[in-house]
Structure formats: C-alpha cells, structure tokens
Amino acid sequence: MITSVLFDMGGTLEDICVDRQSELEAIERLDRMIKSCGWSSGRSIEELKEKVDLGWERYGAYRDSCDVELKPVSIWCDYILRELAIPREELEPHCEEFAHMWEVTHYHRMLRPRVAEMLEGLKGMGLKLGIISNTAALYQVFDILETYGIRSYFQDVTLSSVTGIRKPSPDIFRIALRQLQSKPEECVYVGDTVSRDIIGSKRAGFAKAIQISSKLTAEKDSGVKREFEPDYRIEDIYDVYPILQRLVSC
C-alpha cells in the first residue's frame, strides 16, 4: 500500500538551469555583498569568479566523495572565500546570506507547470507528501516553497544542509521517513537524477521511483554506474498524479 510521496526540489518540482548570465550575476552580487560588509576581494569580477569556481570545485569533490553536506559557515569560510583573507569571525555571520543569494541567483529557477494541481490531487488521495533536497543553504528551500505557494502541501521538508547528509546516501531518505512516520515500502520518490534520486531512494527501500527529465539530468548523471533504474520516466510533473492513482488502486 502506498501512503507517501516524496519529491526532489531543484530539477523536479522546479526547473533550474545555469548559464553565463546567471553565473556573472551571482558573482557580481557576491562582490557587492563583500564590499557592503566593508571588505574587498582585491580582484576583478573575472578573477573573483575564477577563485569562487575553484572553491566550489574543491567543495564538490569533498561532498561527492562522502555524501556529506557542510553548513554554510564551513562551505563559505573553508572553501568558497578562503583565499580572500577575511577574518573568520567577521565572515561567519554573513555565510547563510551568501548561501541563500547563491542558490537563488546562480540558478534560474521556475516552478514547473501544474505542480499545484498535481499536489492537490495527491493531497485529495490522502497521501503524505515530503521533500528531500540537496542544498547548500539552510532556509532557501523553505522560502521558495512559500514564494511558489506550495509549502502547505508538505508534511516534511528534509534538507542536506540541515541533516549534514546528501543524496544518494540512504540515510537522508531514512531521516525523512522517520519524520513522516512512513515505511519505505509504502513510499514513492520523484526526482530528476539516477545518481542522487533513483539510486538513493532504491537503496533506502522505496517501493517505486519516478524520474522526470530536467535541464541538468544528463550533466548530473554523466558517468554514473546505473545501480538502479526508475520504475517510471515522465516529462510532465502532473503525470505523477495518474501514476499514483494507479498504484494506490492496486
């Protein structure tokens, strides 16, 4: 019996992408924020971008090697801005602000069409709904769910930045299950990647996994050993609703 449906956020409930425009806008905003705090990067925008990109590369190599998510303070002090020689005690209070800005600026984000209709349908079936998201900010996901007007649909929102664990580790899925008070064999997971969403949910014992294609799917899944495959592949997020109708009626 299916009782619960959990979703990935970026790439699944919302479309996200990165381009040159969003990359430069994020760096320019970061430069302004640094200056507004009374510091100076001492670098041109392009030089600052090079250093920040290198910081993210270093952090990505670390977190992907162990499925650990550090708090924004550690990410920005120890990786992203560590070469700017800003005293740590001065930088720490601003790290969540930097993290939040980065998530909403470096990425173009837009809620997929008919998400609210799909969620309303699942809610009407009496299903429990949750989110499991890899994110480097503490509050951004909560804020954007409110902006989209869909926060009230979810009984639980589990974030890597809060738990310290990233998908595909099954542990972050198990945390969400405990918070929803659901059993894995009663759950369906919906995400846009095999590498994080399908493999992670299947390792955690979820009954079914649905993959929706996103603009970043191919990049995120490049070179991934396909330990598991999705039970369903969709292009329209609304298709989750009829799939769940069939699963619940079985």
What does the secondary structure layout of this molecule look like, with pairings?
Layout: E1 4-7, E2 14-17, H1 20-36, H2 45-66, H3 72-80, H4 88-91, H5 95-105, E3 108-111, H6 115-124, E4 128-133, H7 140-148, E5 156-159, H8 160-163, H9 170-180, E6 187-191, H10 194-203, E7 208-212, H11 217-220, E8 232-234, H12 240-249
Helix pairs in contact: 1-2, 1-5, 3-5, 6-12
Q: In words, what does this structure look like?
A:
The structure is a single chain. This protein has 250 residues and is of the alpha/beta class. It is 48% helix and 14% strand. It contains twelve helices and eight strands. It has helices at 20-36, 45-66, 72-80, 88-91, 95-105, 115-124, 140-148, 160-163, 170-180, 194-203, 217-220, 240-249, and strands at residues 4-7, 14-17, 108-111, 128-133, 156-159, 187-191, 208-212, 232-234. It has a six-stranded parallel sheet, sandwiched between helices. Strands 2-3 form a two-stranded antiparallel ribbon. Helix 1 crosses helix 2. It starts with a strand and ends with a helix. The mean pLDDT is 96.
